[in-house]
Amino acid sequence: MTIPPTNPVPRAAAGQLSAPSAWNVANALTVLRLVLVPLFVWLLLRDAGASDGNRLLATAAFVVAIVTDRFDGDIARRWNMVTNFGKIADPIADKALTGAAFIGLSILGDLPWWVTIVVMVREWGVTALRFWVIRHGVMPASRGGKLKTVLQAIALGLYLLPWHSVAVVHWTAIVFMAAAVIVTIITGLDYVGRALRLRAAAKRPLP
């Protein structure tokens, strides 16, 4: 006679305990964003940025990629699709997209290089800080960091448009880019302070 196992784990419960597969919708959106980056760069720089059609297509690719960034994280958290691949690939895709936009616009002469350099130093500096303190804790994105992302996306979208030289669009783009740079610097300094406090708290002896 076969004795049934004690307290068998239901299949449903066992499935809930298993790690989510990397093959899911959220990660697919992240990969799509990565794939769109070289396409976006090619469209932006083609014909030295002089073609209105290519600029519109580049803007469309950028907007689609930004939209995937908005939804992939929400989908992953809501449907338990958070994976190690997503944690690594998502921020890489974000920085690759915005970095390509800043550098491409500077190459075309539409955006001063100092703006691109300031933003790139901040973005990769914060990434380095996160790895620097990862043994002591995780620095989640702050509200200021999320505002920075929104401002950058709007400003870049306006600069990408083929009629960005039109007065209304031009000055609107400048205002949003100025706000994005200011928030980028402020949040960068805030992350430095948070990283230092996190390391100091981790090294503080327990009572």
From TrEMBL:
The chain crosses the membrane at residues 25-44, 168-189. It is a multi-pass membrane protein. The keyword DNA damage does not apply. It is an enzyme of class 2 (transferase). The keyword Transferase applies. Its EC number is 2.7.8.5. It comes from the Bacteria. Pfam families: CDP-OH_P_transf. It is found in: Membrane. Its main location: membrane. Belongs to the CDP-alcohol phosphatidyltransferase class-I family. NCBIfam families: pgsA. PANTHER family: CDP-DIACYLGLYCEROL--GLYCEROL-3-PHOSPHATE 3-PHOSPHATIDYLTRANSFERASE-RELATED (PTHR14269), PHOSPHATIDYLGLYCEROPHOSPHATE SYNTHASE-RELATED (PTHR14269:SF52). This is CDP-diacylglycerol--glycerol-3-phosphate 3-phosphatidyltransferase.
